């Protein structure tokens, strides 16, 4: 639990640092565009994802805990789901703080569309934690697991993060989502495709890790 708590604190501090540093580039009295603020939000979330899933999968390294999980009468899919759920909760807690940072440092507002914003964040988070849980297992036991996870994860997340930036940028700018339906379709398609892929590949990756 200490490792998870440390991972969450590191994620929050890193995300707030990214937001604060970029806020210094703004002239006094000006606010950042909604799209740029959304890009910072998902950038902080992506880096935080690596920290969180490194912490989640670090539990299995000492004392051959992973071997115990493999020998236990539970499905590897249950391990995958539990890791993904834990990662989703921790990531969402960090994102709540990121949103507050966007409001305080960058002067952003969701213009009353909080429910839409919550739904969009959760939709993108599903894809993030699915990929984080799968690739976290792949990098497990590697000496440079943080670098390996980042190198593999970030290129695969580009379509998902691009959709998140476009959708959340529209909310921060006060625009409607009617013209952004193609990006929502992309996000949902990514979630469905990679969730299916992860459920198929995770048992193989976890056993061979």
Detailed description of the structure:
There is one protein chain. The protein is mainly α and 209 residues long. The chain has one domain. It has seven helices and no strands. Helix 1 packs antiparallel against helix 2, helix 2 runs antiparallel to helix 4 and helix 2 runs antiparallel to helix 6. It is globular and about 60 Å long.
Quick structural overview:
By secondary structure, the chain is an all-alpha fold. It is built from 7 helices and no strands.
Percent of sequence in beta strands: under 5%
Low-confidence stretches: none
**What structural category arises from helix and sheet content?**
mainly alpha
* Largest sheet entry: none
On the 0-100 scale, what is the average pLDDT? 85
Instruction: Please bin the fraction of helical residues.
Output: over 70%
Number of helices: 7
Q: What's the end-to-end separation, in Å?
A: 23 Å
- The overall strand count is 0
Along the chain, the helix and strand elements come as HHHHHHH
Q: Radius of gyration in whole Å, from Cα? A: 18 Å
Shape: globular
Number of domains: 1
What are the key terms here?
79% helix, 7 helices, 209 residues, mainly alpha
Topology of this structure?
Blueprint: H1 2-23, H2 34-58, H3 65-71, H4 76-106, H5 114-138, H6 145-172, H7 181-208
Helix pairs in contact: 1-2, 1-4, 2-4, 2-5, 2-6, 4-5, 5-6, 5-7, 6-7
